[in-house]
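Hey team,

Filing this mostly as a record. A colleague (T.K.) asked me to run one chain through the structure pipeline before their review meeting, and I want the input and output archived in the tracker in case anyone asks later how it was produced. No errors, nothing strange. Just documentation.

Input sequence:
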Amino acid sequence: MMPKNYSPQPFSSAAVCLFFVVLSCAAASAQVESVIYNFQGTGDGGHPASQLVADKAGNLYGTTSGGQAMGTVFELTPLTGGQWVETTLHAFTGPDGSGPAAGLIMDGKGNLFGTTLGGGNYDDGVVFELQPVSGGWNFSVIHNFNYDGVNNFDGFWPAAPLSLDSKGNLYGTTLQGGTGQCNAANTIKTGRGSSERPVLLQLWHSVSALSAR
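Output structure:
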């Protein structure tokens, strides 16, 4: 197990040259690979390592875990002629999270949800939301993970994509934490209600021990 105070660090910009590909089927069922964007490791981030999510307009959304920032959320927009343009929607700085390792999910309103491995109020990772607004996106942290092994057993290092049910609840897991120091699964209620803020609804501890039964 890694030490509790581990926090993902930005990658060197000299090591970023990952790409996305589009595979199109030709007449003879052959596949043709096209690079649609090369990350530079600067303001656009670097080291994308998770799946993409697409909206109804064909725009692609994803995360990077490095670059000069502590990871980014980005959008790739298709243009006429087969070109794509990249837009950084959010660059993480630490207090708002760092090192997103999982991809994003999108709800029916176009809101994006994701997690970061580290950063946040307790440096244990966060759950975040990006809401489309006129002229841009509104970023907010909707949950700060907090594990100290004494009073807080929230888990830490969320590294897998979230799931969303029909009622708007988010489900996810953490790599470490829980009462058994194994891992934890969380439910986060995204219904705003009177507070207008998502809240942690339920927490299951020691998922690895439960699944072993």
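Quick notes for T.K.: Residues 6-26, 191-213 have pLDDT under 50 and may be disordered. Residues 13-211 form one domain.
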